[in-house]
Write a structure and sequence with these properties.
Elements (H helix, E strand, L loop, with lengths): L9 H20 L6 H13 L4 E5 L2 H11 L7 E5 L5 H8 L3 E5 L10 H7 L4 E4 L11 H11 L2 E5 L7 E2 L2 E2 L6 E5 L13 E5 L2 H10 L4 E3 L2 E2 L10 H10 L3 H19 L13 E2 L5 E4 L3 H10 L27 H9 E4 L7 H12 L4
Parallel strand pairs: 2-3, 2-4, 4-5, 5-8
Antiparallel strand pairs: 1-9, 6-7, 6-12, 8-9, 10-11, 13-14
Helix pairs in contact: 1-8, 2-8, 3-4, 3-7, 9-12
The structure holds pyridoxal-5'-phosphate (PLP).
Length: 364
């Protein structure tokens, strides 16, 4: 049996009738950009993630970039970002004209460390972008306190954390804004690209709606240099079909994570942690071992797909080669030792058993 790392087509198979109906509804309505589907999805998504409002945009990268711009971040500013993340977190800061300044994660949880963040703050720092990495919420209270103390804007990169919670509050309830991606592989994925920003201040929402639509508040009136970054009606209609299933899918992800955790507890690997009060969305299940490459080959030979998140941290990428970055040993170590196991709502118990058996049969 093959256990693919990810089966993005499985949600279509599960919900084909409803998705096809949503598709036809949009096609027949004849309105494809910024219409009633996007508006309805924004209301439904904001409610689901505990936010006051939502603004649909074209991607997770744009969600981050436009959130920072809406909060006034721009050239001359510094923004603290985690050293270990998908490069989009850094690119969004660069896209505003500001400078990303890396701070290291807490090695056990992988999430940006509030203490390291404090040390990275200078008089030019305008914002912090913590990432709920792999679906695990960061220490949101610590970042809210830090932001209040230093008068910083706080934007959470929630691209991997749809449905994650802190206590009984969904992660979208925190900070000035949260940025979401609906890339197909995410916990809530579209059938193409998409993203959203959630916020609590309606003025931020107004600014975002202008920025995503050519900086326009009225047709052919342009108040600022905005972008064309809109969530399609079709993608919004598909997301409205999928959203009611998110919690159930995340519950299945958590059950798989718990089985991996129990079954691998005796092995010499670092397992993901879920600190008290924080409920992961289990976007990824990432283990750590010095023998990462050997283990990945062994699993591949037994039909189990794995991926490394992320093999080259942003500060080692050519894209940031010209900027002067300090030593970031924790990011380097995570990049060298991390391996993501298959996890997803449609993975069967038999497939999970096979992943576990294959890891156990590795000559530890
Ligand atoms: C996927 C992702 C993004 C970017 O989302 P896109 O929709 O692909 O632009 C940003 N940050 C993180 C942490 C991600 O995983």
């Amino acid at each position: 049996m093959q256990v693919p790392f990810l089966d993005v087509g499985a949600t279509y198979t599960e919900l084909a009738a409803e998705l096809d109906a949503a598709h036809q509804r949009v096609m027949r309505h004849g309105w494809y950009v910024l219409g009633r589907e996007v508006e309805a999805f924004e209301t439904e998504f904001a409610a689901a993630v505990g936010a006051g409002g939502a603004c649909g945009v074209a991607s997770g990268l744009d969600a981050l970039t436009l959130a920072l711009r809406a909060l006034g971040v721009g050239p001359g500013d510094e923004v603290v970002v985690p050293s270990m993340t998908f490069i989009a977190t850094w690119l969004s800061v660069s896209a505003t004209g500001a400078t990303p300044v890396a701070a290291e994660p807490d090695e056990r949880s992988g999430g940006l460390d509030p203490v390291a963040t404090r040390h990275a703050i200078t008089e030019r720092t305008r914002a912090v972008v913590p990432v709920h990495l792999f679906g695990l919420p960061v220490d949101v209270e610590a970042f809210e306190a830090l932001a209040a103390e230093h008068d910083l804007r706080l934007v959470f990169d929630a691209a991997q954390a749809h449905g994650a919670r802190v206590g009984d509050r969904p992660v979208g309830a925190h900070g000035d804004a949260s940025a979401w991606s609906f890339y197909p592989a995410k916990n809530l994925g579209a059938f193409g690209d998409g993203g959203a920003v959630t916020f609590s201040d309606p003025a931020v929402g107004d600014r975002l709606r202008s920025l995503r639509n050519y900086g326009s508040s009225a047709k052919y009136v342009h108040d600022e240099r905005g972008a064309n970054s809109r969530l399609d009606e079709l993608q919004a209609a598909f997301l409205r079909v999928k959203l009611p299933h998110l919690d159930r899918w995340n519950t299945r992800r958590a059950a798989i994570a718990s089985r991996y955790g129990d079954a691998l507890a005796e092995l010499p690997v670092d397992l993901p942690v879920e600190p008290p009060g924080r409920t992961s969305a289990w976007h990824l299940f990432v283990i750590g071992t010095d023998r990462r490459d050997e283990l990945a080959e062994h699993l591949d030979a037994s039909g189990v797909g794995t991926v490394v998140h992320y093999p080259i941290p942003p500060h080692r990428q050519q894209a940031y080669a010209a900027s002067c970055v300090a030593e970031l040993p924790i990011a380097d170590r995570l990049a060298a030792r991390s391996l993501s196991l298959p996890i997803g709502p449609h993975l069967t118990d038999a497939q999970v058993d096979q992943v576990i058996a294959s890891i156990r049969s590795f000559p530890w």
